[in-house]
Amino acid sequence: MKKLAGALLIAFGVITSFKGAMDADEKILNLGVGSIFLGLIFLAFSGRKESLDFVLSPYISLFRKISNSLKLSNAIYIPPCVSLPNGGVFVPLHEDFDLDLGKIDDETVFITDVGREKELGILLPSFGSELLKAYEDYSEINFAGAGISVVDYASSVLRSLNLARSVTAEEDGNFLKIKVEGMKVKDCSRECEIFACPICASILLSVAKGSGELLAVRRFDVGERIEIVAEKIGGVDRWM
Question: How does pLDDT run across 140-155, given as a tens digit for each residue?
Fold first, then answer.
């Protein structure tokens, strides 16, 4: 029943997200994205590993078409804050971007203030936020008092769910190199710099949440392992 419910939720979410994007309807797009993630949670806990690529392909294809059509820049992961209690993912139109967190909230999708060119982009719910919540519920550990790094925490939970073999991170100043070994999703590419799958997104979100800083994706290398280079670009107060 979990597998069936997950597949139906994802199918509904893909169709609804596409309609919301085409009609520029923020509520419909949010409903679709939320349905996709909820469906992924059902499948993640159903124990069927081989279904991941099958159900993620439509999701990845949809957002890649959006990114290619709009020529978007790399994603910015936003930690939870007053305006975005669950955090968010800002995909700017320009590499030289600006962002005013005081002007957006959970209902915002398209930032289209033509008077402020650098702020143009798309604000989406945090890809992987539902997985992140599932990690916390599953382990009954709170990040603030875990006593271990958020990357180690994500690694242990992803391994227990058989979604990835391991996750490690090296920090050099404001830059981080995150390595994901044994990723169960095989459809990864450089385009994940813009729209990552919920697994990689949950890792990036966990780092943003743990550090309290916005995280800009700089590079996404896909090979025997996935290597993500990201930069901490300041806390919420800097972007208010």
Answer: 544 444 445 777 778 8
pLDDT in tens, 203-223: 998 889 888 999 999 999 988
What's the predicted TM-score (pTM) here? Answer: 0.74
Q: Are strands 121-124 and 88-92 parallel, antiparallel or unpaired?
A: antiparallel
Tokens matching residue 4: 């069936």
Put the strands of the sheet holding 166-172 in their side by side order: 110-111, 121-124, 88-92, 76-78, 213-222, 226-235, 175-181, 166-172
> With bands split at pLDDT 50, 70 and 90, how would you rate the model's confidence at 176?
very high
Q: Which helix (H) or strand (E) holds 121?
A: strand 121-124
Location of structure tokens 């519920």: 137
CA distances from 25 to 14, 30, 31, 153, 216 (A): 14, 9, 10, 36, 27
Cβ atoms of 146 and 51 within 8 Å: the answer is no
What's the CA gap between 207 and 188, in Å, rounded? 20
Task: Compute the 3-state secondary structure of the chain and give helix, strand, coil in percent, each to the nearest 5.
Answer: 50, 20, 30
Phi (first) and psi of residue 130, to 5 degrees: -70, -40
228 DSSP β-pair partners: 178, 220
69 Rama class: left (phi>0) / alpha (psi -120 to 50) / beta: alpha
Pairing state of beta strands 110-111 and 121-124? antiparallel
**Dihedral, 40, 206, 75, 190 alpha carbons, nearest 10:** -70
Sign of the torsion formed by the C-alpha atoms of 33, 108, 206 and 172: positive
Instruction: Match 């309609």 to its residue by tokens.
Output: 19
Helix, coil or strand: residue 61:
helix
